[in-house]
Every structure is written in C-alpha cells, then in structure tokens.
Amino acid sequence: MVYNRLAFLVAGSLFTMMGIFLAVMAFMVKAAPVPQTYTVFSMAIMCFCLSYLFPQFIQKDERMKLIRQKGMFFSFFAFLIYSALFTTLLHFEIIHLSALEAISILTALMISTVFISWVVLARIY
What sections of the protein cross the membrane (predicted)? Predict the structure, then answer.
C-alpha cells in the first residue's frame, strides 16, 4: 500500500517538474504556455490527490461511494459554471483563446475539480 502512494507522489512530482519546465520555457520566449501545460499541471494535482486518497479508495465501502458520487455531482455543476464563464468571456471578447487552448483549460479545470472535490469530501466525511 505504501508503494502505491509513493508511486502517485513520484508521478505527481514528475508532472509538476514537467509543468514547471514548460511554463519556464514559455516565460523565457515571452509567449503564452502551450495548452498542454495546463493539462500537465492538472495531472500533477490528480496524482497528489490520489496519493492522499489511495488508502481510503482501496476500501469499497459506502463512504467512498458517497464521496465519489458527491464529488462527481459537484464537479458537474462546476463544469457548467466554467462553461458559462468561458462562453461569456469569449462571446464578449474579453479573452481571446483558440479552441485548443479553451478545451485544454476546461479539461484541466475539470480534472482538478473532480479530484480536489474528492479530497475535500474525504476530509468532511
């Protein structure tokens, strides 16, 4: 069990280093980061959250089913808010994003929201 938590910590650290590398390279060339940078950071968040949740997720009890269910429920509404916000900002031309950038940001937000909500709900329940 300790090895699986360690594997998630190592993977999260590697994703964090890759994300920092991509962000630093974008900063050095004075450009926006490539859209995959957001997904890499969200994968780091996912790995760190899974590292925390791994001992609890091994148990297939009602508590973990409730946490997963409520986390997905909250994430659904968060995704609706993200989508409405992006649609509004893009429609009124407050921000200028390509389709690839918008989808990458939405994907990263969704991944992060699901796993962070699971951690928060695991702490509550």
Answer: 7-29, 35-54, 74-96, 102-121
